[in-house]
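Hi C.,

You asked whether I'd gotten around to modeling the 146-residue construct. I have! Everything is below, sequence then structure, no commentary in between.
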Amino acid sequence: MSTRVDHNAIKFTQVSLTVVAVGAFLADLPHLVGVLALVLAVGTARPQANLFRVLYQRVVLPRGWLRPHLVDDDPAPHRFAQGVGAALLAGAWGALAAGLAAPGWALALLVAVLAMVNVVANFCAGCFLYYQLRRLGVIRRAAEAK
């Protein structure tokens, strides 16, 4: 299913999550990783409730800081990638809460690095995973699932 997807909204989310994840690491605030995981999980389940998307639409766009970059695209791989990011951040937060600082921060920073790879190089690792799983039949499209 192809619809119009705002790629600048996606990149805004990725830059925002990178800033929060790296800021949490530098300030040693592991609870921010849990909050970030929750924000991404909510945004995956209900994209219109994504905090970063709301900021993008209500603050960034009206002030003209960015303009929409609408592309014919399937939103499903992007949502899947966001869900993977939420799961990894939840795992990071769990590790940090259990006192496992090194693996916890490594997972959180991995998510930040992968987000920035998408921003800088236009390579979405989560989308790549989505397409590979779909090719293997693990993920079926909504129309195919019915």
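If it helps when you're writing up: The mean pLDDT is 94.

Thanks,
B.
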